[in-house]
Structures are given as C-alpha cells and as structure tokens.
Fold:
Amino acid sequence: MKKGTKKQIHFWLFLLPMLLIFINVIIIPLGIGIVYSFTNWDGFSMAGSKFIGFHNYIKAFSDEKFITAFILTIKYTAIMVILVNVVGLSLALLVTKKMKTSNILRSIFFLPNLIGGLILGFIWQFVFTKLFEFLGTSLHLKGIFFNWIDDPKMAFWALIIVGTWQMAGYVMVIYIAGIQSIPDEVLEAASIDGANALKTFGSIVFPLIIPSFTISVFITLSNSFKQYDTNLSLTNGGPYGSTELVTMNIFNTAFKSNDYAIAQAKSLIFFIVIMILTVLQVYITKKREVEM
Structure:
C-alpha cells in the first residue's frame, strides 16, 4: 500500500466517528426541523401533521414578544461584543506584563468561565438581591444598591455584567496567545524609536493581534446570541418579560405554549440570522487582517 493512500485511510478513520456524530446530531435534526416548521406538528408525531406552508413563519413574525426578544437580543449581543472584548483585551495586556502575580491573575480571571451559566446565574442572583439590598441599607446608597432583578432596566444590565464576567477570561486567553506571538524585537524597536505605550498598542500590537480579534468577536457574537442558561437562572426573563432573550422565547413557545411548529420556525429564523451575522463578521475582520 502506498504511503499517501495509507495516510488517507488513517485520516478518514479518525474523521469518520466525528463526522457521523455531526451528521446525526446537527445535520439530520436541522433537516427534520426545517420540514416540521412547514407543518402543524404537535411535538410528538408527524402522523397527523399537515403541510401548512409559511403559516408558522407568518405567526412568528407577527408575535410581538418574539420581535421584542429579538431586538433585545441584538442589543444584548452588541453590548457584549464590545464589553467582553475590551475587558478581555485589557486583562490580556495586564497579565502579559512582567509581574510576579501574572500566572495567578490569569487563573483568577479565567475561573468564571469554568463555572456553568446556571450556577453563575444563581450566585449573582444572590448578589443582586440580598447583597445589594444589604449594601444599600448599610451605606445609605439605595439609589445604587437595590434589588436589580426586580427592576426591568437594571435586570438587563445585570445580565450584561454576569455575561461579561463569565466570558472575558476566555477571550483574555485568546488575546494572550496573540500578544505573546508578537516578536520581542518589534516591541524593542518601537521602544527605541520613542513610541509610548498607547502608540505601540495602536500601531503595532493591535494590528498584529487582528487574527485573535477575529476569533474573539466570533465567539462572543455567537455565544451572546445563544445565551439561555444565565438568562434562565438569573432573571428567568423577568421582570414582566423585560429580559426574555430569543432562546428563552423559543423555549417558552415550544414547552409552555405547546406551539412546537411555531417554535421550530422561530429557531430556523434565528439560525439564519446568526449564520448571516457571523459570516459577515468573519468576512469583514478577515478582510481587515489582509489590509493590515
């Protein structure tokens, strides 16, 4: 057997299990879901289901709660993309300085990412309710420290804070890899030429870590759009549905309202929007990489 043929056999032997899992878990359910979204599927059997065309999609787009949740999700994602990457990059710049505590700080900043979203939500629910009320009473600052979860405006920002706290450490690791890949000679040359820290970052560091920026924005964008677990445990969409993101709206449509076909149509719309936005983001940032 030729060496090249043997390599190909080994390649497919290693790839095949994951390929089969991907097809069974992603491709086939996606195809079945597309079919269900054009029927009056009851969530159990296709035997009595009928083809009803775009009726489920029309209902989805006429659902005010779904549209509101979509707008809120876009707002949430936009803020998260900015905050997570700014905080993550700032932390990366901090821990790549020559400090004795760099390794300890890296572990501390990354730790929240290891905790599940459900657990984080319950931890921070205690902080925003019990601890904030205690601080507000003790420090006489009830205008700042009060039960954020009961306030429609502040509950949204509570979601933002928890999401940023969780994801910033993961993004930090990506930026650390990018910063450490910059040759020391380049930074030393900039220092000799008299460039200050801000000039060095803007003209050398940031352009050279654009690939890390592309990956970080992609991860933040996709994860923020798909946020569910923290949304569930921290606010459960409340108060009065003011923090119900798209994923929760789809779940509630299926398992609370029992409108499984409509929920499937909503999820497909959601999938298409995420796909378009992430592809555009990667295209734009990759183009930026080439230009730099």
Remarks:
- The domain at 65-291 is CATH 1.10.3720.10 (MetI-like fold).
